[in-house]
Amino acid sequence: MLSGRTILITGAGRGLGRAIATRLGEAGATLWLADVRADWGEAAVAELRGDGVAARFVPVDLRDEASVDAMFATVGPLYGVVNNAALADGVGGKAIHELEVADWDRVLAVNLRGTFLVTRGAARALIAAGGGRIVSIGSDAAAYGSPRLAHYIASKGGVAALTRTAARDLGPHGITVNTVSPGLTESESAAFVPEHRHELYRLNRALTRPQQPADLVGAVAFLLGPEAGYITGQELIVDGGFVLK
Ligand SMILES: NC(=O)C1=CN([C@@H]2O[C@H](COP(=O)(O)OP(=O)(O)OC[C@H]3O[C@@H](n4cnc5c(N)ncnc54)[C@H](O)[C@@H]3O)[C@@H](O)[C@H]2O)C=CC1
Ligand SMILES: Cc1ncc2c(c1O)C(=O)OC2
């Protein structure tokens, strides 16, 4: 379904990005796994290559404009980019009246500014290629308005809004831009989420089993695939029916 397509995934060293890489590799895509953690990224690439996937690692720090631009220079022509990297662990715990500007800046620098930098680089690469796809990973927490996560939620609401304006800017160039927003998932970063938030999801999902990384990947593959070429500017929530809208 994606053979001959080169797709870059940020934050692909572990968690949801790693699961997305597995799914896109199964679909035959050629992959670039980008991460600030070279150890995680290289290990993921080694596993994928062991399964016969054409995968390579490229280092990037989304907080650094020059690093993002260098990443795009390294990888060359692309068909798709998945904006997955974000600070998702250790971000909770403070209500807005307790939040420090340093907390806000640390999270926004990666999750929103970094997503802008990667989306801008992706746009330049995909315009040069004559078209392509961008998928950004949001969070259902933005629509729900989860407490004690103001900076994280503002960043993810910003990602969904950035998707809408980028879709309009890039539509004339044959590029679609969409957001896929997972719910609380049993990935490595979930260990940092307080038990009461897991309980909230357990009790309020339409589907009653906990979300796994593999539950997200089909939606991402679909939006990158041949049947989604007329879908753009949208947010698709994949959370087992916790947020319904
Ligand atoms: N796990 C969950 O329950 C949920 C996750 N999400 C979103 O899904 C995405 C993936 O989340 P997880 O896999 O849980 O996160 P994670 O923390 O397990 O993985 C994130 C990856 O991004 C990388 N990264 C962090 N800062 C970076 C930087 N400055 N430059 C480059 N790479 C950087 C990390 O090294 C890591 O490999 C994020 O956008 C997150 O906000 C959304 C809803 C729920
Ligand atoms: C820390 C934290 N708590 C709850 C949630 C998330 C999160 O990152 C998320 O992305 O969706 C729900």
UniProtKB/TrEMBL annotation:
Q: Tell me which Pfam families the record gives.
A: adh_short_C2
- Record-stated family: Belongs to the short-chain dehydrogenases/reductases (SDR) family.
| Gene Ontology molecular function: any one | pyridoxal 4-dehydrogenase activity
Q: Which UniProt keywords apply?
A: Oxidoreductase
Signal sequence extent:
none
Give me the gene this protein comes from. pldh-t
Indicate the segments forming the Ketoreductase domain, all copies.
5-183
CDD domains, per the entry: SDR_c
Q: What Enzyme Commission number(s) apply to this enzyme?
A: 1.1.1.107
Record protein name field: Pyridoxal 4-dehydrogenase
Broadest EC class assigned to this enzyme? oxidoreductase
